[in-house]
Write a structure and sequence with these properties.
This protein is an alpha/beta fold. It has two domains: 4-167, Thiolase/Chalcone synthase (Peroxisomal Thiolase, Chain A, domain 1, 3-Layer(aba) Sandwich), CATH 3.40.47; 173-307, Thiolase/Chalcone synthase (Peroxisomal Thiolase, Chain A, domain 1, 3-Layer(aba) Sandwich). Helix content is 32%, strand content 26%. It is built from nine helices and 13 strands. It has helices at residues 32-39, 50-64, 89-97, 112-125, 149-152, 200-222, 239-249, 260-263, 270-280; strands at 4-13, 18-20, 43-45, 74-78, 102-106, 131-139, 157-167, 173-180, 188-190, 196-198, 229-234, 289-296, 300-307. Strands 1-7-6-4-5 form a five-stranded mixed β-sheet, with helices on both faces. Strands 8-13-12-11 form a four-stranded mixed β-sheet, with helices on both faces. The chain has a two-stranded antiparallel ribbon with strand order 2-3. The longest helix is centred in the last third of the chain and has 23 residues, at 200-222. The chain is globular, with a radius of gyration of 18 Å. The chain starts with a strand and ends with a strand. The protein binds oxa(dethia)-CoA (UT7). Oxa(dethia)-CoA is lined by residues 30, 34-35, 38-39, 110, 149-150, 153, 188, 198, 200-201, 203-204, 207, 237-238, 265, 296.
Length: 311
């Protein structure tokens, strides 16, 4: 067999500023009760830049892998909120961290982190790279209309990522699925220099369907069923979306990682934040199968089944 990939390091970062649901009350026609019941979010973090959060998360992941930055031979940064239009934020992040080789940004909205992991695995599988830093970072507060109660309460800032290393003896990436349906563009978009606009209910309905279908395809390709999944790491948009998807997949909520109550929807940051949180709570053991599943603007979706082997 050719090269496979293992996750050998992980890290995350969130800004210091905590914004509670109570802080929206009075300013917007909303309440802590409505936000908690309809979304599961209690508080979120706002602040930092996409590059500053990426650098912190990336340095932590490299340290956890026991590597030095120069060992990394490719950096992939999933983001929809780059610091600047040009250059790619990954260029600045690569420079500040000190990685070797190439670096590029990838934009597949909230599904982008799983896209980026699969691309990283593919570059290793093709024999092009040996050690890939895959980061997901967004600062959605910068493109959120704080006068729109339908979005202001949801979106937030955060980052996370993993180090993927080439292996010759085993491949921890067992199956994956990537998809897109651009006909859904009108239900979630941001024009250049403008705020995110969303038809929440439409996104909600499609989200559950695409997550379930995509996760089933990834599990089928991996040759496993939901009974084999030790931990589900879904995109953190709404607790009701996670519950509905897990229910249809027959994965009990005890096997899902949920961090949206503390961090809100951080787009590309959400899946690695949920992965790192689960690891820090000792919820992952070597050999466990992890199901990643995300969806986002596009509409995009992506799922992957990855064996956790620790480091
Ligand atoms: O990362 C991917 C991007 N986005 C998502 O995944 C979001 C997906 N969608 C959702 O999470 C949910 O649709 C929302 C949380 C955005 C909304 O929850 P919902 O249960 O789907 O509510 P709804 O849009 O059907 O609205 C119900 C009512 C409406 O009032 P009327 O028309 O019934 O009078 C809304 O105007 O709730 C109203 N509403 C609010 N009320 C209090 C909408 N936002 C708020 C709010 N506080 N913040």
């Amino acid at each position: 067999m050719g090269f496979g990939a293992r996750i050998t390091g992980w890290g995350s970062a969130v800004p210091d500023t905590v914004v509670t649901n109570a802080e929206f009350e009075g300013r917007l026609a909303t309440s802590d009760e409505w936000i908690t019941e309809r979304t599961g979010i209690k508080e979120r973090r706002w602040g930092g830049t996409t590059s500053s959060l990426s650098i912190e998360a990336g340095n932590a992941a490299i340290k956890r892998a026991g590597l030095s930055a120069a060992d990394i031979d490719l950096l992939i940064l999933s983001t929809t909120t780059p610091d600047q239009a040009v250059p790619a934020t990954s260029a600045v992040v690569s420079h500040k961290i000190g990685t070797s080789g190439g670096a590029f940004d990838l934009n597949a909205a909230c599904a982008g982190y799983v896209y980026a992991m699969v691309v990283g695995r593919a570059m290793i599988g093709a024999g092009v790279n040996k050690k890939v830093l895959v980061l997901g970072a967004d600062t959605l507060s910068r493109i959120t209309d704080m006068d729109d109660r339908g979005t202001a309460i949801l979106f937030a800032d955060g980052a996370g990522g993993v180090v993927l290393e080439a292996t010759e003896d085993q491949d921890d990436f067992l199956g994956w699925d990537l998809g897109v349906d651009g006909s859904a563009q009108p239900i979630l978009y941001a024009d250049h220099g403008s705020y995110l606009r969303m038809e929440g209910r439409e996104v909600y309905k499609k989200a559950v369907r695409v997550m379930v279908e995509s996760a089933e395809i990834a599990m089928h390709r991996a040759g496993v069923t939901s009974d084999d999944i030790a931990l589900c790491v879904p995109h953190q948009a709404n607790i009701r979306i996670i519950e509905a998807a897990c229910n249809r997949l027959s994965i009990p909520m005890e096997r899902a990682s949920v961090v949206l109550d503390r961090f809100g929807n951080t787009s590309s940051g959400s899946i690695p934040l949920a992965l790192v949180d689960a690891e820090e709570r000792n919820r992952l053991n070597p050999g466990d199968l992890v199901l990643f599943s995300g969806f986002g603007a596009g509409m995009t979706w992506a799922s992957a089944v990855v064996r956790w082997s620790g480091n």
